Amino acid sequence: MAIATINPATGTTVRTFPELSEAEVEQKIGFAHDTWLTYRGTGFGERAELMRACADLFEKEADATARLMTTEMGKTLASARAEALKCARGMRYYADHAAEFLADEPLADPSAVGAKRALGRYQPLGVVLAVMPWNFPMWQVMRFAAPALMAGDVGLLKHASNVPQCALYLEDVFRRAGFPEGCFQTLLISSRQVEAILRDPRVVAATLTGSEPAGRSVAAICGDEVKHTVLELGGSDPFVVMPSADLDRAVETAVDGRVQNNGQSCIAAKRFIVHADIYDAFTERFVARMRGLRVGDPFDPSTDVGPLATEQGRADVEELVDDAVAAGATVLCGGRRPDGPGWFYPPTVITGITRDMRIFAEEAFGPVASVYRAADIEEALEIANATGFGLGSNAWTDDEAEQERFSSDLEAGQVFINGKTISYPELPFGGVKRSGYGRELSAHGIREFCNLKTVWVG
């Protein structure tokens, strides 16, 4: 795939970029490693000052940054601006809390291990490669970069090939904030160059957010090299609605959750599992709201859903819908691409899904919702967990016993009850099963790329 900005609303190429040569990549790895040797010795106070300066720039430049994101991957301008501001919030969170999260952990009774003093100490690992996706081109990167830089690590970014200007902005904004230039570098490279970087002994770990095949590849290489990885892969999140739920709020959140980011979010609700007693009422309202959404220019404030980010992404969504329809599923709204330029696809609702359809097992990365009928909580949980993914999940019920049951039995890294699944700096983020392993955000996220060293003093 060429490294290029291609406006998804028009399909026109805006700008192309050359790939770095092997020699240029080698130079950047060396620069990163040399920078880390000195940067790891800085204190939390100095790092926090730099991180807050970076947050200031993100806030000041949020409008311009939003336009860049919208141009490159098609998210609505309002959601792009919110993403820029969320990055600033994440940076400030780690600036405020890194010292606390990585403080020494002394053993309460060191005499129990025959020591005068014993503790655990968090220390940075070194150069970390981040392989990042296009769907949240700033926030996905920042939820790695902010904790890693505050921990004393340095980063190399291999961003998605369709958001090169976002990638270059990220390198530039860290530099302008005052971080040493080698602390965070963007590598404009193709996927075929990743393996050599992962095998370089100066690169000590990797984090990837993206597709399952990409995650398997990075995990296999790092496993061979015995290097630490964090993987956040796909999701096919369930959204369960029970009879005691506030139906109006559930429908409103269901629509928002399905079409957020033009339907291109790993933690977007994708499979709507509704109790039989309220199935008809929910589905009628849900379809009406989905049908009423405005699809169009993501720069237009009245637009609800912009284009999909890539031509191949739209083709993948179409194939899933067409396969389901050919096998007997019913399309209640949407289901056909509009005429005209750009990679638009309408909000779509499908029912009558059976287990032999691809959409039952695969992630629909676009504004396509599958609706299932469940007779009771047991069937709802069975349908919800009948997937290889386990990233986020939603359940709507005012029954406390049901709330506890969903919290316990939904197979996911996150369970949100009566609310939209969202990533927060304060909460750990990650999945189970084929959705990956490891955690981002919260105290757990900053500790992922640290060596927890045992110190024993006799």
UniProtKB/TrEMBL annotation:
Q: Which PROSITE patterns match?
A: ALDEHYDE_DEHYDR_CYS (PS00070)
Per UniProt, the keywords (alphabetical) are: NADP, Oxidoreductase
GO terms of molecular function: aldehyde dehydrogenase [NAD(P)+] activity; succinate-semialdehyde dehydrogenase (NAD+) activity
Known PANTHER family for this protein?
A: SUCCINATE SEMIALDEHYDE DEHYDROGENASE [NAD(P)+] SAD
Protein name, UniProt field: Succinate-semialdehyde dehydrogenase [NADP(+)] 1
Q: Which InterPro entries match?
A: Ald_DH/histidinol_DH, Ald_DH_C, Ald_DH_CS_CYS, Ald_DH_N, Aldehyde_DH_dom, ALDH_GabD1-like, GABD/Sad-like
Task: Give the matching NCBIfam families.
Answer: PRK09406.1 (NF006915)
The gene name on file is gabD1
Q: Which residues form a coiled coil?
A: none
Q: Which residues form the Aldehyde dehydrogenase domain?
A: 3-455
* UniProt keyword Cytoplasm present: no
The keyword Oxidoreductase belongs to this UniProt entry's keyword annotation: yes
Q: Which organism is it from?
A: Planotetraspora kaengkrachanensis
What does the sequence similarity comment in the record state about its family? Belongs to the aldehyde dehydrogenase family.
